[in-house]
Every structure is written in C-alpha cells, then in structure tokens.
Write a structure and sequence with these properties.
single chain; about 170 residues; five-stranded antiparallel sheet; 4 helices; transmembrane
Length: about 170
C-alpha cells in the first residue's frame, strides 16, 4: 500500500511537472511576443526611436488641429457671406390685363438671410411693358405692393396664409 501511494505521488508529481512545463512554455511565448513589440518601439539608443515616433505623432496631431481650426474659420466666413446673399425667391406670373390672353406679367422677390432684398415686377401690355422695383427691408416693403407682389413676397418668406402675407407685406412707416 505504501508502495502504491508512493507511485501515485510520483505520477502526480510528474503530471504536475508536465503541466508546469507547458505553462512555462505558454508564458515564454507571451514574453517573446511582448519582447518583439518592445524592441520595435525601442530601436535605437535609449528609446530614441520611441521618442522620435511620438514626436512625429504629436506634430501630426497639432497639424490636424490647426487644419480643423482653419476649416472652422473658413466655414464661419462662408456662413457670414451666405447670410448676405439672395437665398429666398418668390415668383408669380399673372395676366395684368384681361384683354391679353397670356400670363406675361410677373413679380419676383429676392431676399437674403435677413429678409432684405427687392421685389421686381414687370407688367406686360400690348403696346408697352413696364418694370418696377421695390425695396424689401426685414420682410416688409417700403412701398405699397400689388396683390401679385404680395404673393411673390409671401412665397419668398415661405408664408402659408394670406393673412401672414398681408401683415408681412404691409408698408413700413
């Protein structure tokens, strides 16, 4: 029985040694992998390779941040300019005189981002045509508007109801 027990201890110890040996091989493999990575970053004297790589990366990050700032400033300049350009258009064609069969008269309103702009109307007749322009300031006309000009202004402002058009097209006093 004692011999049996000693045999089991020897077998158990041998199995334990084999398991520990395999575990050491796995650990050695991981250490080799980490060592390769370490060597890649530390090529050169005293880690100068790593320092050089980090300085290149930091410079690239700073350049990217500067580029983003420049793009932001350009975007602000574009938005400022765009706010002062014609953005809203209203267009209405109509027949100014009943005895002329075509809708050859029109009113067009051009507004910027501040709702400032101009309303241009062309009244077509058989013997003559007339063109009028009226300034628009903050969505309101400085002169009285015809029904067609009010519709054009309403379309440019994006209004939906006639009441809104009449209010926004009223003469500024």
């Amino acid at each position: 029985m004692l011999e049996n027990m000693q045999l089991w201890i020897v077998i158990g110890g041998g199995l334990l040694l084999i398991v520990l040996f395999l575990y050491c091989l796995v650990l050695q493999s991981k250490i080799n992998s980490l060592n390769k990575r370490y060597e890649y970053f530390m090529r050169g004297e005293n880690g100068s390779s790593l320092e050089r790589k980090l300085s290149v990366e930091v410079k690239e990050l700073r350049d990217a941040a500067e580029s983003i700032e420049n793009l932001f400033q350009q975007q602000q300049a574009i938005q400022t300019t765009q706010h002062n350009t014609f953005q809203k258009i209203g267009f209405v064609k109509y027949n100014a005189f009943e005895n002329i069969g075509n809708d050859l008269s029109f009113s067009v309103t051009l507004l910027d981002g501040n709702n400032n702009g101009i309303c241009i109307s062309s009244v077509y007749g058989r013997s003559e045509s007339r063109i009028f322009s009226k300034p628009i300031v903050k969505g309101k006309s400085l002169a009285s508007l015809s029904q067609e000009e009010m519709e054009s202004l309403q379309e440019a402002l994006g209004s939906k109801s006639n009441e809104e058009a009449l209010i926004s097209a009223s003469v500024v006093k």
